[in-house]
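Chapter review. Work through the record for Gibberellin receptor GID1A before attempting the end-of-chapter questions.
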Amino acid sequence: MELEKPVTGDIVPVILFFHGGSFAHSSANSAIYDTLCRRLVGICKAVVVSVNYRRAPENPYPCAYDDGWAALKWVNSRPWLKSEEDSKVHIYMVGDSSGGNIVHNVALKAVESGIEVLGNILLNPMFGGQERTESEKRLDGKYFVTIQDRDWYWRAFLPEGEDRDHAACNPFGPNGKSLVGMKFPKSLVVVAGLDLVQDWQLAYVEGLKKAGQEVKHLYLDKATIGFYLLPNNDHFYTVMDEIILLLTVFLIIAMLRFCSPMGSGSSWYRDDWAWLLGVEGLVQHLAGLGSCVFGTSTSKWHDCGCYGLMKALVAA
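Structure tokens for Gibberellin receptor GID1A:
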């Protein structure tokens, strides 16, 4: 395949994916992550770039962030990924566990450097802090994860002598960077109800809200870590529906920006979450018409992908 030659003029979402593994294991070549990325390609009809970042303890902080940042710059500079509609690369960042942590930190660099990321999607992101939370105490040793494991991974990754209130671990803790006034990407945070570090994930959601950032979180009460790596479970398809919906909404926004003679500065256009949720509601309503639009239900959005969904809705 000649990757330097565009195969379509459509707006195609580009997902920059960061695998999990607590900064210390797994890779883009791991079967579970290769399979997940292939499923994202098939379901979302997106280009997926899976990043092989360096791992701890041999390569501690900030190596994984540096590699993630290099990958984002590479993706943003590829001419064959740009849409003919608006000459932009429509980038979303997705990561699970440590990959979700990397998404947050690469997004910070993107904002500072002016690279537009349309959305962050964090699946069971790996955050923490010095305090022992209720979920850590309640779920320690259950459902595959222990506090001892978490502590070791953080010691392996963080700079020598730093504790878990380092900004890399606790982004909204005492040493975190303020996001107030920053144009941070809109975020979807997926939290598993049986994940030991769920309290830190929910604290991350609250930190974004308090900083005035736009965030939506999906709490799956009976899900364990890595549920999205398992085939054909209801939790997986719930998350895929949310991801397709999010990508579709932002593709519609991109089309509105491009097609409006007044551009994004026009009075009807608003780049805030309340307005976007209104568009999301419209998407859900039209998709809910079922056979009138697709001949199927919203649970089958993955059959047509986000661009196919957008075109079907526009045609409707």
